[in-house]
Design a protein that fits this description.
The structure holds 2 protein chains of 2 kinds.
Chain A: H1 8-17, H2 20-27, E1 31-37, E2 40-46, E3 56-62, E4 72-77, E5 82-83, H3 93-98, H4 115-118, H5 123-126, H6 138-148, H7 152-163
Antiparallel strand pairs in A: 1-2, 2-3, 3-4, 4-5
Chain B: E1 2-7, E2 10-17, E3 38-41, E4 64-68, E5 73-78, E6 82-87, H1 93-101, H2 110-114, E7 116-119, E8 143-150
Parallel strand pairs in B: 1-4, 5-8
Antiparallel strand pairs in B: 1-2, 3-4, 5-6, 7-8
Classes of the chains: A alpha+beta, B mainly beta.
C-alpha cells in the first residue's frame, strides 16, 4: 500500500488487514492477501485438501465505500486474470450454491455477506447471522467463505467432482 | 516479537508487540487486560508462572496466549438437550465443536456436522473456529452457554 492520500474506505481496509483476526488467519494458512489495487483486492482463501482440486480459491474484491458498503467478491482466475469459470468452481451442496454461476453471471458470491447478494430484499432480516453491516470487517467475509470451503461434505463432494 | 493475546470478555484477540525478556506478568496489563489474573498457553495445563520471562515460558513469535481469571471454562452446549464439558481457556471453538458433535456430545453424522456451527445465544454472528473459549466468559463467571445451530442455505 502506498503513502499517498487515501480515502476513509481504503484506510478502514488497511486497519482491518492489520487486525489480529486477519493476521491470525494468515498465520494459520486460512487466507492470504495477494495484492491491492484500490478499490480492488485479491485474496486467496484456503480450501480443504483433496486430490486433484485447488488448495485455494481467489476472490477479487471490490471495496468502494467499505465498511459501510459491503465488499463484493468475484471468484477469480489468477492465471487468466478473469472471472473463474463454472467448471473450476468448488462443488458440493452449500458451497456450490454460494459460488453459483447462474446468478449475476457468477460475478459475486450468493451469500448475505456480499454486497450484490445482500441487495436481495429481506436478506438482512432473513439471515442476520450472515448479513453484512457496517460493524463487520473483511475477516467476517473471509471466515464465512473459509468455512464453506472446508466443511466435510464439501471435501468429499469436491474430491469426487474433480477426480470424476 | 508479536503475540496474539486473547482476553476473557473480549472475543477479538489483540496482536501485541513485546520483548522476550519481559516478564509474563506484563501480559496482564498490556493492552486491554480487563482485570486478568493469570496467563495460560495451550501447551501447558496450568497457568504460567508470572515471574518468568516470555522467552522462558516458551512463548514464541505469533503464539496465542490467554489471560483471564479462569483455569478452566465449563461449556454447556444446547441442541436437543444440554451437554456440558470443561475446557482449557485456550481451547478453540473448533475443539469445542468436535466434542459437542462427537460421540461424547450429540453424536452428529459427518453430514450433520458440516451443516452446524456454534454461537453465543443472542449474538449477531456464528463463532469462528479460531475463537478461544476463554475469551467468551464474562466477569465473575467461568461458565459459558453455546447453541449448536444449523447453517443457512441462502435462498432468494
Amino acid at each position: 500500500m502506498t503513502n499517498a492520500v487515501i480515502g476513509p474506505d481504503q484506510r478502514a481496509l488497511c486497519d482491518h488487514l492489520r487486525s489480529a483476526r486477519f493476521q491470525a488467519g494468515v498465520d494459520a494458512g486460512r487466507w492470504r492477501l495477494i495484492s491491492i489495487t484500490w478499490p480492488h483486492a485479491l485474496i486467496a482463501i484456503s480450501a480443504a485438501p483433496r486430490e486433484g482440486a485447488p488448495e485455494e480459491f481467489v476472490l477479487r474484491f471490490e471495496l468502494s465505500g467499505y465498511p459501510a458498503s459491503a465488499p463484493t467478491g468475484c471468484p477469480w482466475d489468477l492465471d487468466q486474470d478473469a472471472i473463474l469459470l463454472a467448471g473450476q468452481r468448488p462443488k458440493g451442496s452449500r458451497v456450490a450454491h454460494i459460488f453459483r454461476t447462474d446468478w449475476e453471471g457468477g460475478r459475486a458470491l450468493y451469500a448475505p455477506w456480499d454486497r450484490l447478494a445482500l441487495a436481495h430484499g429481506g436478506w438482512a432480516d432473513k439471515y442476520p447471522m450472515y448479513a453484512w453491516n457496517a460493524r463487520r470487517d473483511l475477516t467476517f467475509y473471509l471466515t464465512n467463505v473459509n468455512d464453506a470451503l472446508n466443511n466435510e461434505v464439501f471435501s468429499a463432494s469436491l474430491s469426487q467432482a474433480f477426480t470424476a | 516479537m508479536e503475540i496474539y493475546v486473547h482476553t476473557a470478555g473480549s472475543e477479538e484477540p489483540e496482536l501485541i508487540e513485546i520483548e522476550g525478556a519481559v516478564l509474563v506478568r506484563e501480559l496482564l496489563v498490556i493492552g486491554q487486560g480487563q482485570g486478568a489474573e493469570l496467563v495460560m498457553i495451550e501447551a501447558v495445563a496450568e497457568p504460567i508462572d508470572l515471574d518468568i520471562t516470555i522467552d522462558e515460558a516458551g512463548i514464541r513469535h505469533r503464539d496465542h496466549v490467554h489471560r483471564g481469571r479462569c483455569r478452566r471454562v465449563d461449556v454447556r452446549v444446547r441442541y436437543n438437550g444440554d451437554k456440558s464439558h470443561e475446557f482449557h481457556p485456550v481451547a478453540t471453538i473448533r475443539k469445542v465443536f468436535e466434542w459437542a458433535t462427537g460421540s461424547d456430545g450429540f453424536d452428529l453424522t459427518p453430514e450433520q456436522k458440516a451443516e452446524h456451527v456454534l454461537a453465543v445465544p443472542g449474538a449477531d454472528h456464528f463463532l469462528d473456529w479460531e475463537v478461544r473459549i476463554g475469551s467468551l466468559v464474562t466477569a465473575g463467571s467461568c461458565d459459558i452457554v453455546l447453541d449448536l445451530a444449523p447453517k443457512s442455505r441462502f435462498e432468494g
